[in-house]
Each structure stands twice: as C-alpha cells, then as structure tokens.
Q: What sequence folds into this?
C-alpha cells in the first residue's frame, strides 16, 4: 500500500517535471529579451577604456555577436543552451557554467542552513503559540515574528556583526565562507561544513560553521515569521479538529495528542510554505551575500547585471528557475509521503 | 442490572462568547443504569451534545461546568484532573461522534489509531495491541480486516469509518458509551446496520449507552427510555411508547408531530395551534393539459461519466408534467444529485437529452445556460442553507440577485416590492431582509434559499436535499411551504432526498435510483407500501419509524 502511494507520487512528480519544461523555456526567452531591452551597452562597458574608439567598440560588438539582429541572437543563444553552453562571463573571463558551479554550493549551503534554523525555531514557536492562543507566549511569538519581518536582512545582518563580531568578538571576521589561512578540504559536495566532516577535519568544520552561522541566522530571522505563523494557524485548526477530540476522548497522552495527532497533520501546509520560502531565499539572499562577502551566485549575478554582462545574468535566472522547479518537485514528493490522501488525486 | 452507573445532577454548562456567558445546559438531571441504552433527543441548540461532552470532559476551552455534579460510579467527573481523568477517558467511558470520517486522523492508518487507544490503557507490547486491534475490526464486522488495518480513513466509506470509530471507542471495554449522532449523514441502510451493530455490541459487553440524536424515530427504535431536551433542560422523560402516544410537554408534542412517520401527511407535521398561523391552502384544481401539449420536462436516456470512471448515471429517462412533484431517492453514490444537476443544467450530460417545455436544452453547455431564457424557468434549492448563500449578501440581495440577473429588473421600487413579495410568500419576516446569512437561523436561511429560487417565477424547482440540514420542526414548516408553492403557483418540484418519509409525503411520484440507474418508479404511496424490488424494500425497512402502542409492545 505504501509502495503504490509512493509510486503514484513519483508518477505525479515526473508529470510535474515535464509540465514545467515549457515554463522554463519561457523564462529563458523572457530573460534574454529583458536583457536586450535594458539600457547599457556591454561593448562600451567592456572596451579597454572610456576613450575607446568607435572601431574598437564595433569590433567588440562583432566579437560578442551583438551586431546581429535580436532574433538571430536568440537562436544562437538557444542552440548554445541546448549544447550545455551558458556562454562566457566578460567579468571573470570564465565560462558561466563554471562560475555558477563554483558559487552555487556556497549559496545552497547558506540557504539550507538558514531554512533549517528557521524551521527549528519556527515550528516549536508556532506550536507553543497555538497551544496557548491569546496568552503572553502567543503575543511574544507574534512580536518576535513581526520584528523579524520588519527588519530588513541587511540591517539584521549588520546588527549581528556589530554585536557578535565587534562587541563580543564571538564570531569570526565576517568575510567569506572560510578564513584565508584554513586549507580547504577536498571538494565532494561543495558544502564546506560537510566536506570538512568527510575529510575528518573538525577544526576546519568548526571554522566553516562559525563563518556560516551569522549570515544564516540573519536570513533565517526574515523567514521565521511566515513559517511560525503558518505553523500556528494550521496547528490551531488541527487542535480544534474532530480527530484530536477523538484522540482526547480515548485518553491518549498529551504528547501523543499534540505531536502524533495534531502536529503531524499541521505540518503539511508548513512543508508547502517551506518550499516557497526556500525558493524566495535563494533568489533574495543577495543582500546577505553582499553584507557577509559570501561568494554565492546571487552576488555574482548582481555584479554581472550592474556591468551589463548578459551571459551570467541569463545563466543565473535559468539556474534559479530550474531550482524552483526542483524545489517544488521535492515539496511534492515530501507531501506525497507525508499525506496518504494526495496520491489518490 | 439496576445499578446506577451515571448520575447527572442539576448540571449547568456555560460558554464564554463575545456576547458574554451563554448557558447551553441549565439544570439537567439524568441517571443511566448499567447496561441500558438511553436516548437523549432534542433539536440543535438544545444542549444534548454539550451534556455528552461535559460528561466525557471534552468541552471546548470556552465551555465550563458552572454548577451541578456528574457522578460516574459515585465519583464526580467534573473534579477529575490529569491521570485520574485519563484513566476515565477511553477506559471507563468513551464517545462516538457525528461525521466519522473527520473524527479519525486522516494521515494515520486505522490499525494504528485503534492500537493507540489500546496502548494508552494497557501495558502490552505493540504486537499484542495490533492483534487486539485486528480482533476489534473483526468485532465491528469489517470485511477483510487484515488489509484494512493499513487503510487510511479516506479509503473507507462513511459507514466503515463509523465502525472503526466504534472499535476505538470499545477498545478498552468502557462501562459507558456516549454516541453523539452516530448515524447522522449516513445512508438509511448503513444507518440501520451501524446502529444494529452498536446495539449488539453494547448488549454483548454490558455497556450502558447514551444515544444522542435529533431523530425521534431512531431513539424510539433502540432505546427503552428517552429524555427530551429543549433549550438546556430536560422537559420530559418516558418510554418511547408513552412519549409518542401521550406526550406531556408541549415541546414533545410539537416534536412528535413534526417527525415524519409512515402514515403522516404534510398537514399533520405541525400541531393545531401552529397551523392556525397560516392561511388555508387555496387548492386550485389543476387544469388538465390540452391533448398533445408536450410534458414540462422530458429526460431521454441521460448518462454522465466523470473522467474515465464508470458511469455515475446511465440511461435515465423520465417525464414531468407542470405542477407535478417527483421524488428522486437513493443512497449516496446512486447518482441522484448528479442527475438533478444535469437537469438543472449545472453540469453537462455525457449522453442523452433534456427537453424542457418542448425545447431541447441538453446540448446547451452548462456554462452558457445562464444566458438561456429558460434559466429562470428552472431553479434550484441547495442542500446546505449555510453554504449556498453568499455570506456578503444580505437576505434582500440574495433574493434580488436572480431578479436582476435573469429577470432584468433594476434596483428600485419594483425590485423591492417583488423581493418583499417573495419573502412574504415563503414566510420570511420582512424585517429580516437587511440581515446577513450569519445573522439568520437555519430555517430562515432555508426560506431565503427558497425565496431566491422562486423569485423569477420558475416552472420547475429542483430541490437537492433541502431539509437535510434542518431540525424536524423547521423541516415540517419548509415542507408545508413547498407543498403550498406547488399547489398554489403550479411549480413542478423535483425533490432529491434520502429521506423516504419526506418524499412519501411531498411527492406524487417517486423514482428509486441505484448505482446510476432507475430501479423502480411509480406512484409514491403504492411504491412505498408495496415495493416491487428488494432494494426498495430494504430502503423502506431501514427507515426508523415511530411505532406506537401495540406495535412497540410486540417488538419488545
């Protein structure tokens, strides 16, 4: 029975994946056109200097293929993508694919950690608030959430740096994933905290975690609010439901009622929201990456955008769109496993 | 067996609401002896469920016992705390709820849910608990119990879910079982099976049972003693025979009258003094339609298939004359609602045709039908008066809306007059018109729904279980209203219901549906008195009738 449920979920997930391909294609074309419409001429930007001659600029244009018409450029671009070539960044001089591959793990590690922290904080907060609605605790949680949403991430990031690095000296220098003197572990997952563990280097692991904690917390603070609120709301529904009353009517222990009966049902919408939150964080963590000099994809894309470097921006948007599809897929699968009712649709 | 198990003494329960404390139960005194089945009957808001919840200590956070005692085996339940309370819940007394599917945890296999209850009160291993759960599933007569252990509630029918609920409730052999509307919402045949099972189990295990229900017939069939509640008080307590043959209290008299029986007519449903409030029915003799005029409605070989599944309705044909009333009965899943919606043109038939007043409308797409001039001739009254009214429309707006959309009327004096006319027609006081649905009672909402449907002077009214959510006394009034509308305004009624007693009274002809096909049809009284098919007979026999006098004595 479990097997058929899982199988159905997989089929559904596969169908979902297929149906998202047109959307991905749309994103590709749209970003391409958007970049062409935005003001700024990359040839001028990348010419040798402000006084570059007309011929030099024209030559760069030809090199970059910008002298062709937009539809022609689009066809070339799409065929390149088809061959797995995202183009070359004018900024770094490297293929965009290579740049993204180097930087993506940093962003993912940060986002995952932030989401984990947010969930670990938000779910218990939401549950406590729902167990005593209208109490001091409930209001406290509400205030905390409101503060988290009101304060922009770069402000909370700077505040954290000020307190933990400048005042108390607890946190390390907030620049990058690891301080320059630590030797890097052999790359396996790209997640430093995991790679260090795999290499058995606990000192390095500790150093990486110390670097990670402040940016992750400042990102987490921002998303605790929606997660805690949805947990509280769905927990309230769950606690007031008939099946919780049934559980109480046969005298099940408090723990069993709250955790096994109420929370497991209440967690379903939280999974959905967590997926959305994760996608948003991935794209929106540019501020945190900037504040903490985190070498992630978002700050890379921002720099590229500011210098009219088309290829990295287009590559970044494609990456984000694909990740979004992937995250939705994972959410779908998780949901299918957590809720036996889904598979019958 | 005369040992006193439960004694409720002058119980008062109050709920704190925004408008201050509201007393739901005011001075209930009751006793239940070991092993007996007591019926607790009353309409919604009478406090019968609250009494049950107070006894099992399951009141909402807002509810509080303000006075009185609930003595269970001499121990005051209202004062128990913590572990003592949990010893009681499930082990000594347990409860079965209305809406069994919602009462089970949707994402936990039912075997585990039963085992949870067992493990709470017995120190045994998980395997032993599982084995006991399996035995319980057998005890409540679930087919193929081994496979069902891993099933989730959504994979079971409502009746099956209620059996699982019973299994959970009896898992630790409680001495008292409180069944709160255990069969409301189930089909009549399922209702009978579940109630028989419950009665058998209670008798076999010597459990005392309190059956909380709004259905006098049900209580009469299974209980030796019935207590009638009204507005938080017990107004009468007697054996069913005495209660029905010689009710003492005015409320009991009204309730008994309003409960449909095998022989009652619509006029009988309200007592004499109530009837005087209404003008006598002006019975127009129906004009015989001239020879050769087409019937009002003709349905030919209608079929509906959803997605790739089996046909929900197949080969359904019927005709209706103007001003005729036809009942469409069957269990859930028989396709009666689907059929009625196709005839209303709310969903598209897969095959067949619908001819209304000589015009074929079966092929007009449902989503375009609102533009058809025939839309205002076919109107519908929906099952749930709460859900079928727009919460942001006042009663006036609800009735005026079809007049403006279909009748082409503009806001103004004419519209106001017509709305008031409709409200008067359905007996809705005019001062209620500015109110919003949540400020109206269930019966008033039902009237708004009917007023809305008749506003455009339809010729065919399709009613999908219009009284299922109403108390019997309100149902009685609504049925009278519908009957008047039919007789006085010549509106044909297609009445979809699972309540055979109601159909028998209201409808001249009845069609019995099963699995999407017509099983039997004919003149109502003949069909019910003399069913030709086993299925119809089973349906008729499953209705809990109020049997009075010698019949009851014979049954005992």
A:
């Amino acid at each position: 029975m479990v097997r058929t449920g899982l199988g159905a979920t997989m089929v559904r997930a596969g169908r979902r994946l297929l149906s998202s391909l047109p959307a991905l294609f749309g994103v590709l074309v749209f970003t391409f056109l958007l970049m062409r419409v935005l003001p700024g001429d990359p040839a001028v930007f990348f010419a040798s200097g402000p006084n570059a001659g007309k011929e030099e600029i024209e030559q760069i244009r030809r090199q970059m293929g910008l002298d062709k018409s937009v539809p022609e450029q689009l066809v070339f671009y799409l065929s390149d993508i088809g061959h797995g070539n995202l183009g070359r960044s004018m900024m770094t001089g490297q293929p965009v694919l290579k740049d993204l591959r180097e930087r993506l793990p940093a962003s993912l590690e940060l986002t995952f950690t932030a989401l984990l922290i947010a969930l670990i904080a938000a779910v218990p907060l939401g549950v406590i608030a729902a167990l005593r609605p209208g109490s001091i605790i409930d209001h406290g949680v509400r205030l905390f959430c409101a503060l988290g949403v009101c304060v922009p991430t770069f402000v909370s990031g700077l505040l954290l740096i000020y307190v933990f690095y400048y005042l108390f000296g607890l946190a390390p220098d907030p620049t990058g994933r690891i301080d320059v003197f630590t030797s890097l572990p052999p790359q396996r997952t790209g997640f430093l905290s995991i790679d260090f563990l795999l290499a058995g280097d606990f000192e390095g692991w500790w150093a990486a975690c110390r670097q990670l904690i402040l940016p992750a917390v400042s990102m987490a603070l921002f998303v605790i609010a929606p997660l805690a609120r949805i947990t509280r709301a769905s927990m309230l529904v769950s606690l007031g439901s008939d099946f919780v009353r049934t559980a109480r009517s046969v005298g099940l222990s408090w723990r069993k009622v709250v955790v096994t009966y109420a929370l497991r049902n209440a967690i379903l919408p939280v999974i959905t929201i967590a997926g959305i939150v994760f996608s948003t964080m991935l794209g929106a963590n540019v501020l945190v990456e900037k504040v903490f000099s985190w070498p992630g994809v978002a700050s890379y894309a921002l720099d590229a955008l500011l210098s009219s470097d088309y290829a990295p921006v287009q590559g970044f948007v494609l990456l984000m769109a694909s990740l979004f599809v992937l995250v939705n897929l994972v959410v779908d699968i998780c949901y299918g496993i957590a809720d036996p009712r889904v598979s019958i649709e | 067996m005369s040992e006193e198990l439960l004694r409720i003494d002058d119980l008062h329960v109050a709920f704190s609401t925004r408008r201050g404390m509201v007393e739901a139960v005011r001075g209930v005194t009751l006793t239940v002896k070991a092993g007996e089945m007591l019926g607790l009957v009353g309409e919604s808001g009478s406090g019968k469920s609250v009494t049950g919840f107070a006894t099992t200590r399951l009141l909402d956070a807002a509810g509080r016992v303000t006075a009185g005692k609930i003595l269970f085996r001499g121990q005051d339940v209202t004062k128990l705390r913590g572990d003592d309370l949990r010893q009681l819940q499930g082990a000594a007394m347990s409860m079965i709820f209305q809406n069994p599917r919602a009462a089970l945890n949707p994402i936990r296999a039912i075997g585990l849910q039963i085992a949870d209850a067992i493990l709470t009160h017995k120190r045994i291993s998980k395997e032993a608990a599982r084995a006991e759960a399996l035995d319980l599933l057998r005890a409540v007569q679930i087919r193929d119990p081994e496979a069902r252990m891993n099933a989730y509630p959504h994979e079971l029918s409502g009746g099956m879910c209620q059996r699982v609920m019973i299994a959970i409730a009896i898992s630790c052999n409680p001495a008292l079982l409180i069944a709160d509307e255990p069969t409301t919402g189930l089909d009549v045949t399922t209702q009978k099976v579940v109630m028989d099972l419950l009665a058998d189990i209670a008798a076999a295990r010597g459990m005392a049972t309190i059956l909380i229900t709004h259905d006098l017939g049900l209580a009469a069939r299974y209980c030796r003693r019935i207590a009638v509640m009204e507005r938080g008080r017990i107004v009468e307590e007697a054996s069913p025979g005495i209660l029905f043959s010689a009710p003492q209290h005015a409320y009991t008299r009204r309730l008994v009258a309003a409960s449909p029986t095998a022989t009652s007519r619509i006029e009988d449903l309200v007592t004499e003094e109530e009837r005087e409030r209404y003008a006598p029915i002006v019975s127009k003799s129906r004009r015989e339609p001239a020879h050769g005029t087409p019937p009002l409605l003709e349905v030919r070989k209608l079929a509906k298939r959803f997605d790739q599944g089996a046909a929900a309705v197949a080969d359904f044909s019927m005709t209706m004359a103007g001003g005729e009333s036809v009942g469409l009965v069957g269990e859930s899943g028989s396709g009666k609602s689907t059929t009625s919606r196709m005839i209303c043109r709310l969903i598209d038939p897969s095959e067949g045709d619908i001819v209304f007043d000589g015009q074929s409308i079966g092929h007009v797409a449902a989503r375009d039908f609102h533009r058809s001039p025939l839309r205002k001739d076919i109107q519908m009254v929906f099952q749930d008066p709460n859900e079928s009214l727009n919460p942001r429309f006042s009663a006036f707006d609800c009735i005026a809306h079809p007049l403006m959309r279909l009748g082409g009327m503009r806001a103004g004096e004419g519209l106001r007059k017509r709305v008031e006319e409709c409200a008067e027609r359905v007996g809705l006081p005019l001062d209620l018109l500015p109110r919003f649905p949540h400020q109206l009672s269930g019966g008033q909402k039902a009237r708004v729904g009917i007023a809305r449907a008749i506003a455009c002077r339809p010729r065919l009214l399709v009613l999908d279980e219009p009284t299922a959510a109403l108390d019997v006394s309100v149902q009685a009034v609504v049925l009278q209203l519908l009957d008047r509308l039919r007789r006085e305004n010549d509106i044909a009624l297609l009445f979809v219901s699972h309540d055979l007693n109601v159909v028998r009274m209201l409808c001249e002809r009845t069609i019995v549906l099963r699995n999407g096909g017509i099983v039997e049809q004919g003149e109502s009284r003949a069909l019910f008195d003399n069913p030709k098919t086993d299925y119809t007979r089973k349906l008729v026999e499953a209705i809990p009738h109020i049997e009075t006098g010698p019949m009851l004595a014979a049954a005992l």
